[in-house]
Specification:
Layout: H1 21-45, E1 52-53, E2 59-60, H2 64-79, H3 95-110, E3 114-117, E4 123-127, E5 136-142, H4 155-170, E6 181-186, H5 199-205, H6 223-229, H7 236-240, E7 249-257, H8 262-266, E8 270-276, E9 278-287, E10 291-292, H9 304-320, H10 322-325, H11 334-343, E11 345-347, E12 351-354, E13 360-361, E14 364-373, H12 376-397, E15 400-409, E16 412-413, H13 416-434, E17 443-446, H14 451-455, E18 461-466, H15 482-497
Parallel strand pairs: 5-6, 5-7, 7-18, 8-17
Antiparallel strand pairs: 1-2, 3-4, 4-6, 8-16, 8-18, 9-14, 9-15, 10-13, 11-14, 12-14
Helix pairs in contact: 2-4, 2-15, 3-4, 4-15, 9-12, 13-15
EC number: 3.5.3.9
Family: Belongs to the peptidase M20A family.
Subcellular location: Endoplasmic reticulum
């Protein structure tokens, strides 16, 4: 007796023996039952063989080769592109930065995107979709790094976006997007070389003044000169032309490592960002009287190092107990003080002295101050209180003090509508990979600055955080699990599929 064949071009089931109506009915029932259970069965046995259907009936899978294996390999490859031999360092328009940009551009073209590099060194990759005149979705992060960096800060967001678009291209859906999608690898977010953050994204958002071209690094080379050394001729006129018109942009999305411990604590790979803390960077200069360490009596010294130390200790106390120092005289409401208690952080990250010799009382000390908080009014109150203390203390110690504001960025609230879509995409992506309901996606605040802060002046913004081990960032110990990279890429892909 021959077995029934299901592989005939004839829609009826072919058999080599007579079959009754009842037998046919039972067989079809069993067949239908199996077909209903098959997707669930394959999902349970292997995440790599999960199948679903979009509204057109096109089938897709989880793209582990693109969103996981290739993405991980690319992040590792990018992490080895450095200006230093023993650690990772890529600063604005450095040789390593140029090599990294060329790699990203090649990967963008591999994903089917049209690419170019603009006058601020940003690398772009664009898919026009069905209607190139529609407002574009921008997805981005930065390709530069801090000194002695990890592999994932900035790079993760760019690679995940490229991978998601490559997955669409692999299934013939890239040109079916209802609006253009553009990936931007921003040339400078960290501000290491020129001490001016967001050079890349600020230019796109129209925030970068033309005077920024004349900012110089420690070797005296200007931003304009660094670009020229990379064969990019940037003038005041074409810098202004970099600005995107708000009418041409639908929104901006950024994927970034959390740089904190919350997601690891809750045991989930993805979290939604609801806002980014405002930030102010100060440069404080204290000048005293330089002298011999062994001959100037203690009560006759005008020592800028001791004055700087007193100021730094005061800053720590001020930021640990803002309610103790800030009054309720109408300038700083109690609600503001309460919000500071939950988000205020202050850091002195750099200090230098001149002439910096062990047997010399320094003549000058310089240090940086970084103040961040979700409440902009409260952040200004902290800076006012610190500055007030500084000038009083300097008078008392007979030293000269000066404070320069090097960077200011107000707090950013992510767009509610875009955030809802990203949260839904994250939930669906995690369920797609695991086959299980992950529960509610956490909602977090960002204490770190991101390109989304600059882009918020151009368009609505949304952000996703990706779990990083130990919450460690700006360090070689920075690490993201391979499966979490996969989840991030899948979340971007799921979000893009809403634009089909």
């Amino acid at each position: 007796m021959a077995a029934p064949s299901l592989h005939s071009s004839n829609p009826t089931i072919q058999t080599s023996f007579p079959i009754s109506h009842a037998m046919t009915k039972n067989f079809v029932s069993i067949l239908c039952f199996f077909l209903v259970l098959y997707p669930s069965f394959t999902m349970a046995t292997s995440a790599n063989t999960f199948f679903g259907e979009n509204i057109e009936g096109m089938k897709y899978d989880l793209f582990p080769e693109i969103l996981k294996e290739e993405a991980v390999a690319r992040l590792n490859e990018l992490g080895k592109v450095s200006d230093a031999s023993d650690y990772l360092e890529r600063t604005f328009q450095s040789p390593g930065s140029i090599r990294a940009g060329n790699l990203l551009r090649a990967w963008m073209e591999d994903a089917g995107l049209k690419t170019w590099v603009d006058q601020m060194g940003n690398v772009h990759g664009r898919a026009e979709g069905i209607n190139p005149s529609e407002k574009a979705l921008l997805i981005g992060s930065h390709l530069d790094t801090v000194i002695d960096a990890g592999y994932f800060d900035g790079s993760l967001g760019i690679v995940c976006a490229i991978s998601a678009l490559k997955a669409l291209n692999a299934t013939g859906r890239l040109d079916k997007l209802r609006r253009p999608v553009e990936v931007i690898a921003f040339s400078d977010e960290e501000g290491v070389r020129f001490q001016s953050t967001f050079l890349g994204s600020a230019a796109i958002a129209g925030l970068l003044p033309v005077s920024a071209l004349q900012i110089h690094d420690k070797n005296g080379l200007t931003v304009q000169g660094a670009l020229r050394a990379s064969s990019i001729e940037t003038t005041e006129e074409n810098l202004l032309q970099l600005k995107y018109e708000p009418e041409s942009v639908w929104g901006y999305v950024e994927v970034h490592i959390e740089q904190g411990p919350v997601l690891e604590n809750v045991g989930l790979p993805l979290g939604l960002v609801k806002g980014i803390a405002g930030q102010t960077r100060l440069k404080v200069t204290v000048r005293g009287t330089q002298g011999h360490a062994g001959t100037v009596p203690m009560n006759m010294r005008q020592d800028p190092m001791v004055a700087a130390a007193e100021l730094i200790v005061f800053l720590e106390s001020l930021c640990k107990q803002p309610d103790y120092y800030l009054s309720y005289d109408g300038q700083c409401a109690s609600s503001t003080v309460e919000s500071l208690a939950g988000s205020l952080v202050c850091t002195v990250g750099e200090i230098s002295s001149w002439p910096s010799a062990s047997n010399v009382i320094p003549g000058q000390v310089t240090f940086t101050v970084d103040v961040r908080a979700m409440d902009d009014t409260g952040r200004e109150a902290i800076i006012y209180e610190f500055s007030n203390k500084l000038y009083h203390m300097c008078d008392r110690r007979s030293v000269f003090c000066n404070v320069e504001r090097k960077h200011d960025a107000n707090a950013v609230v992510c767009d509610p509508g875009l955030s809802t879509e990203l949260k839904s995409a994250s939930h669906a992506a995690l369920k797609r990979i695991t086959g299980e309901d992950p529960g509610d996606v956490p909602v977090l605040m960002s204490g770190a600055g991101h390109d989304a802060m600059a882009m918020s002046h151009l368009t609505k913004v949304g952000m996703l955080f990706v779990r990083c081990r130990g919450g460690i960032s700006h360090s070689p110990a920075e690490h993201v699990l391979d499966d979490d990279i996969w989840a991030a890429g899948m979340a971007v892909l799921t979000f893009l599929e809403t634009l089909l």
